[in-house]
Here is the input.
Amino acid sequence: MPDSPTPDALTGLVKRRVLEAGFDDARVANSAAPPVLAHFKGWIEMGRAGIMDYLVTQADRRSDLRTAFPWARSIIVAALQYDTPHPYSTDSPQGSAWIARYAWGDDYHDVVRARLEALRQALGRDCGSFESRAYVDTGPVAEKAYAVAAGLGSYGKNTCVLNQKLGSWFFIGVLITDLDLAPDAPTTDICGSCRACLDACPTQAFPEPYVLDARRCISYLTIEVKDSIDPELRGSMGRQVFGCDICQDVCPWNRKRLVSGGEPFEPRAHNLAPSFEELASLTPDAFQARFRKNPIKRTKRRGLLRNVAVAIGNAGSREHLVLLDGLMEDEDPVVREHAAWGRDRLRARLAHEDSLRPGRV
Ligand code: B12
Ligand code: SF4
Ligand code: SF4
Here is the structure.
């Protein structure tokens, strides 16, 4: 590139490169801590991070990325859509398990990281050497706060970043750089008086709009919790076996479905509403093979089968009792304990349904 382009010219080029790397939208924030991060430590101190120790130990760095990256000047924030034209959990037939939409296809960490790397290389060719770090999820960076500061969207009341065109079904990738770019302005709130997500959350995980108590979120319970799930919350988890989409499924901005994430995020075989039978019979080898390069590998077999036992208890039918009997013999004590809970729950549900049949008094 000719010497010293203006920040505006360089920013225009950077945004073109982001789209060429395969992202759906691109914005820029400066490195100052976004105002919303003033609440980060208070949220941690209230215990709302639960057992997510990485948030606790990195609270300083996540409250202001300049702590870890003092050389940072501009944050390039990229959105990658992952919605595909398949039903929402709230619209699809019950009686099977449900995996959250973001985990149907390839592991998004791999997909987004590869595109950020392509972006970094393209910018290296354009600008010569520059300092940068690329993250999706794994760095000490509060990605949503910088996405909102950059106007990639606004916070939804469900705490996801919402964009008028993409809804909230997009991943956020960040490239922290020492480039001198022109920052974008934040956009305004688009929730208005809507509160569909707050009312739909089955575990009442929102103590107030725009704030999540992660300890109650089904996504946290099914993925982050490694051992026993709080029995008080199990009955509200429905059929979710990995993550949860409910507060996004009900969002009117997600109903427009203007963009599809395409092939990497299309559901792999059996990931769209998988049957309880198939999941409950996964051996350790079958689990490894089935979830290779897919986000579900993160729960390990223990976590997934534990979640399946809870989901059968909540949403299974009489013919699924035998699956719980099988899981009660599982090699893993956590799976066995949740299978016993699931069996008691399913039996109680069936007894209740029987008591409501005509002819019973
Ligand atoms: C930890 C984490 C989780 C946790 C906590 C979620 C959460 N809302 O924070 C759990 C496991 C529950 C989770 C779930 C999900 N996650 Co997640 N997660 C993260 C991670 C790693 C960190 C987020 C974080 O810092 N949380 C801490 C809280 C404090 O931050 P916050 O939500 O922004 O909270 C702000 C406000 O609440 C406000 N606030 C707090 N208290 C108060 C009080 C007052 C009075 C006020 C005014 C404000 C206020 O300030 C806070 C910031 O300082 C990010 C990746 C990253 N590195 O950033 C992905 C990320 C947020 N997750 C993502 C996704 C896709 C999901 C799920 C949809 C997956 C699923 N289907 O199951 C769900 C969504 C659940 C939900 N409703 O949020 C995407 C979101 C993309 C988007 N468009 O928004 C991210 C960005 C990953 C990525 N790179 O794409 N996740
Ligand atoms: S992901 Fe599910 S459990 Fe978590 S806040 Fe949204 S609706 Fe509630
Ligand atoms: S459901 Fe309504 S309140 Fe919730 S994020 Fe969407 S627009 Fe905002």
